[in-house]
Amino acid sequence: MSELPPDEAWRKAKEVCFDLLAARPRTKDELRQALRRKGFDDDLGERLLSKLDDAGLVDDAAFAETWVRSRHTYRGLARRALVSELKRKGVDPEIAVEAAGEIDAEAEEQRARELVRKKLRTMVDLDEQKATRRLLGMLARKGYPQGLAYRVVREELRDAGAETTLLDDIDP
């Protein structure tokens, strides 16, 4: 976009950012990458991002808090997976860890139980070993710690009436 006069480039870059922010909150890095893809000069992008930050339109910490709440509630992601996603979105690792820390161990365990119960309803015809493997895999993909996953799956299978001798010998 270097062929545009500076005022026009600024206006167009601002338009790109506002369009993206209108759809959903974004991190500074997401906006920076979008401006680069559109061919805007890095200096112009940094000046614009600084202005947006000063105006309170881009706030990585607020973005991280919202992201964590949403992804934990609706996708069932655990703290580890949430931190990883936030880092990929360009959020500072410290901010990502702090935001994910708002989900306490009890809430994480409760969400894991909800996920297992929901999945168990669809597994009526599977043998216990296959069901266990699938449930543990699902929780692992969502970032739940191995020890928590084993405990939750074992207890939920017991509550559902399965013979869970399979997991009694396993030390996570």
Overview of this protein structure:
It is a single chain. By secondary structure, the protein is mostly helical. The chain folds into three domains: 6-58, Arc Repressor Mutant, subunit A (Orthogonal Bundle); 61-73 and 80-100, no CATH class; 105-168. It contains ten helices and no strands. Helix 4 (60-75) crosses helix 5 and helix 8 (128-141) crosses helix 9 (146-159). The longest helix is centred in the first third of the chain and has 18 residues, at 6-23. The mean pLDDT is 91.
Short description:
The chain has ten helices and no strands. It is an all-alpha fold. The mean pLDDT is 91.
Structural class comes to mainly alpha
What is the 3D shape? elongated
Number of domains: 3
Tally of alpha and pi helices: 10
Helix content: over 70%
Q: How widely separated are the two ends?
A: 55 Å
Could you tell me the mean pLDDT? 91
Strand content of the residues, in percent? Answer: under 5%
What is the N-to-C order of secondary-structure elements (H for helix, E for strand)? HHHHHHHHHH
List unreliable stretches of 5+ residues. none
Number of strands: 0
Biggest beta sheet summary:
none
Radius of gyration: 22 Å
Record the SSE blueprint.
Elements: H1 6-23, H2 28-37, H3 42-54, H4 60-75, H5 79-88, H6 93-100, H7 105-120, H8 128-141, H9 146-159, H10 165-168
Helix pairs in contact: 2-3, 4-5, 4-6, 5-6, 7-9, 8-9
Main features:
3 domains; Arc Repressor Mutant, subunit A; 172 residues
